[in-house]
Amino acid sequence: MGRHSLTEAKAQGYRAMQFNIVISTNETAVRLWTRLGFAIVGTLPGAFHHKMFGYVDAYVMFRSLEGVAPPCGRQGSKAE
Prior knowledge:
Layout: H1 2-11, E1 16-23, H2 27-35, E2 39-50, E3 54-64
Antiparallel strand pairs: 1-3, 2-3
């Protein structure tokens, strides 16, 4: 799903992707998006109330789509 969203966004002509809220305690999600090339570009202190941990940080994660190949036979459709 993660790789598909990158190639689909690239095919539609987008230049980057951003997730505005990735909960810091969701280590699986942070690891996944990091492996797919996203970087933490911001931290929202105490932005999420976790049932077990109370208020925890949320991350803003960003990735350029430069270098992502669109699906076979498709080119970007948005004007640059």
